[in-house]
Every structure is written in C-alpha cells, then in structure tokens.
Design brief:
Strand order of the largest sheet: 2-1-5-10-9-6-7-8
Radius of gyration: 17 Å
Number of helices: 9
Helix content: 25-40%
Largest sheet: 8 strands, parallel
Bound molecules: zinc ion
Order of helices and strands: EHEHHEEHEHEHEEHEHEH
Length: about 300
Amino acid sequence: MLTAFISHPDCLRHETGPGHPESAARLHAIEDRLIEVQLYYLLRHLDAGEATREQLLRVHDAVYLDELDAHPVAGGLRYLDPDTAIGPHSLRAARRAAGALVTAVDHVVMQEDVNSAFCAVRPPGHHARRRQAMGFCIYNNIAVGVAHALEAHGLERVAILDFDVHHGNGTEEIFADDPRVMICSTFQHPFYPDFPFEENGSRILCAPLPAGAGSSEFHTAVETKFLPALEQFRPQMVFISAGFDAHRDDVMSAINLTEADYARVTRQLVELAHKYAHSRIVSTLEGGYELRSLARSVEAHIRALMELH
Ligand SMILES: [Zn+2]
C-alpha cells in the first residue's frame, strides 16, 4: 500500500501579496525537499480535483459561497480580512485545496489504492468559518474532506487531530454539533485567533499550550488526553490538520517543536488508524512558514505516514 501526495499547480497561483508568509514558496520548498531526499519518487502523485459547490455547501453557507463568486478579482488583490487576500486565481486554488481532501478521501476509502494521503495545498483551511474567510483560509479544506467521508461514503465516526500552532476555530465551529466527528487540537494560547474555545465532553478536546512550551507539554497532551479518548471513540478514519508553525524555527509562534515531535505524533495516529480505521489516514497542510523547517517537518511527517503499511 502506498501514500499519496496530492497537489495541483493551481495552488501555486494563489497570490497573497509581497512579503506575505503564506506564499507559493512553501509548496516549492516541500517538493524540493522530498525530491532531494528521494522520498518524492516513493509517493503516489495525484492531482487534486476541484471541490464542487455541493461539496463546499456541506460545510459553508450558500450566502458565503455566492458572495465570493459574485466578486471575481480581475487584477490586484481583494482582502477578505486583514490577513486574507485573494487574487484572480485564488478561488480556483481554494477549490483545489478543498478538492484535494475529496480526492484523498475517495482514494483512501473507495478506490483503496492508497491508505494514506498528504495534501500539499494552499490556501490552508482550518480558520475558515461557515460564512467567513479568516487567517489565510478561504474554504475549510479538512472539513470538506471530513464531510465527504461522512456524507458520500457513509462513515459514522471520524477523528481530526489539529497540531497547527493556531486554534482550528473554523473546523471546531463547523462540527460543533456533529456527534460523528471528534476533534483534538493543540495550539498556543493565548494567541491568534483568540476565539473562545469550547471543549465538548469527550468529543472536542483542546490542549492550549503556553508560549515557550515544547515537546514534553505537546506529547503529554497528546498521550494522556487525546489518545485515550481517541481509543474510546474508535474512529473509522483519521484526519490531520498538519500545520508545522509550532516548530521551534518558525517565527510565527513561540512553541518549540521539532521534526521528531511531528514524526512521533504522526506514528501514533498511524497506529490508531491501523487499529480501528483500516489504516485510513488523510493529512493536509495548514500552516508552517519557515521554509526549511517546514520542508523537513513535512518529510518527517510523510515518512511516518508510510510506516506500518
Ligand atoms: Zn497556523
């Protein structure tokens, strides 16, 4: 069995403005690293499809989709919030980013030609709310993938682990009332986006980390809080919101993780998926802005996804 690497050249054409940390250079850095270490050739490369309106409507309000479609950007940039710009090609990139998750789910659940997938896409997604773009995110990519697994493939229990350094407020809002979805999230706190986070019994679990925290705080949260709850939930599929901006080299945050930490948590999730979910695991890129640590971390993450197959 193989791990898929899902991307699309359209994701490179999303412009965010000069000096913006969320740039196409991120995807180039990842691909260059995977080629350099010869991991690239061991992956099954798939083009991300474009998410359809029906697939986006599972997690976004029609009024939000209509508003985006009604104001195409002919040139220059339009700001959806102070951090989130869109250019002429951005909505197509966003549909590819969300569509990558649909492609991943279809291959992992239905075609079964791969059992894990990493989506190297941008814009990221986990801040996007039902009717609001936020924090570099336009559509909530992972939510579109999870909803596809639930609605199109009839899964009944799906888990998301979000280890991006920022709280995945959009994902949490979208699935707040859906008992089929369990969300475990680590993030620096207090920090952007400064939304109140709400734990929901044993189904929405948060581990806020103070500035300066590192490997031991992170693994303690994952291993004493998340993994026992995930074992009880017995997910039929595992999703990862894989942001690498909690890396110690990433200037975006004050959390000090390393590649080894990403490898360890990924291995634990692969084991969980192996035990309960027919090894089905889909990961998608969220943040990660220091290009070298981002590239090394994605490499470590993908190597761990490929284990145990
Ligand atoms: Zn982030």
